[in-house]
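[User] I have long wanted to understand how a fold can be written as tokens. Those tokens are not coordinates but codes from a learned vocabulary of shapes. Could you go through the record with me and say what the backbone is doing? Thank you; the sequence and its tokens follow:
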Amino acid sequence: MTPELVVEFAKQAITLTIYLSMPMLGLGLIAGLIVSVFQAVTQVQEMTLTFVPKIIAVFLGLLFAAPWMLDEITTFTRNIIENIPMYIR
């Protein structure tokens, strides 16, 4: 295995990780911004109010995005396994 191949493999893995995590992080960010605006308007500073909506948003996002995420991870893994003979040369 050449150093270029290892770097390319690492790049693909990191790119896939970011690609899969961005929708959940985006949902958490949007939920956090909405809760922050609500807290600023009503002056309610409850700590659980900041975490619960974010957790619910991320879990709902995972519920709907899980098939897509599983397909992406499966495709990546299948490509790695199919190319093992090329890696050991």
In short: DSSP finds three helices and no strands in the chain.
